[in-house]
Amino acid sequence: MKKYLFLFIILIFCNICIGQTDKYGISIAAGIPFSDPEPINQSPLKSDDFKIIHKSYSSGLLANYNLNDTILLRLHFEITNYDIRIFQNNFDNIIHDFDTLIYKQVNIHIAPGIIWNIKNKKIRFNFGYEIPFNIIGKYKLNWTSISTDSLNNNIIYKSQSIETYPKGYSFGLSAILGFSYYPIKHFSISSEFSPSLLYSSYFGKYSRQYKAILPLNGSSTFTSDYNNKGYFYEQRFILYITYWL
Fold first, then answer.
1. Distance separating alpha carbons of residues 126 and 187, to the nearest angstrom
2. pLDDT in tens, 96-121
3. Among 80, 63, 67, which residue's Cα sits nearest to residue 8?
4. What span, in angstroms and rounded, lies between the C-alpha atoms of 151 and 160?
């Protein structure tokens, strides 16, 4: 994000030197992905009774070109860092089970788009479409499982496994709905919601490294071919600041 901010400042300085037309715009964006990546839907937890914490975020740049007063063309570049943590506790009269799952992944999002604007003084309402192409990074799951006895709370079982899903890609169509506010000349602050229908393909090797810690030490490794294709729905929300050249 610091690199994007430095580039943003350089562009402002250069534009002051050569003059401004508000024809072109460069945006710094930050957002939150609302949808979970595909492998998380294959969670190995025993039930749906769990607590989930999202620490995922995205950051990126948008290059904008005002074709006329109502139509804007843009190129959207974004990096999404998924960090999803799931906690589950199962209790009965004899054994308490505690499971912790941490999912991590980095995706790259590239999308040309077209936006239509409806002006209302300093506010513009935006709607349009993007054609996204996503480079999907490896997906890693770190799963720790602990069992204790209910009487003394002593650990009677502990294990850890690391699962790795292969890389892939996705593409499709995204709708865009949002608004922009122009507080001063040459600057705008925008927010948008973007639901997408995407086709994805994962291919490569899946691996699982298992390590038993209690009551006996032991380890094993399993690998297999992984090929998963299909359609899925994704949602994202982003905020961005634009400087118009």
1. 16
2. 888 899 999 999 999 999 999 998 88
3. 63
4. 24
What pTM value is reported for the model? 0.82
* Residue 201: pLDDT over 60: yes
3-state helix, strand, coil in the chain (%, to 5): 10, 70, 20
Give CA–CA dist 74/168, Å, rounded. 25
Identify the helix (H) or strand (E) that includes residue 15: helix 2-18
How many whole angstroms separate alpha carbon 103 and alpha carbon 149? 28
CA atoms within 13 A on the CB side of 129: 4
In sequence order, the 6+-apart residues with CB closer than 8 A to the CB of 41 are none
List, in order, residues 6 or more apart from 68 with CB less than 8 Å away.
none
| Helix, coil or strand: residue 167 | coil
As a whole number, the mean pLDDT across the chain is 86
Phi/psi at 39 (5° precision): -65, -20
Residue labelled with tokens 């715009």: 25
73 - beta bridge partners? 65, 114
Exposure of 164 by Cβ count < 10 A (0-12 exposed, 13-18 middle, 19+ buried)? middle
Tokens describing residue 25: 């715009």
Angstrom distance (rounded) from CA 143 to CA 162: 6
d(CA 89, CA 49): 8
d(C-alpha 201, C-alpha 222), whole Å: 22
Residue written as tokens 């359609």?
231
Which tens digits make up the pLDDT trace of 116-154? 999 888 899 999 999 999 999 998 999 999 999 878 888
| Three-state secondary-structure class, residue 122 | coil
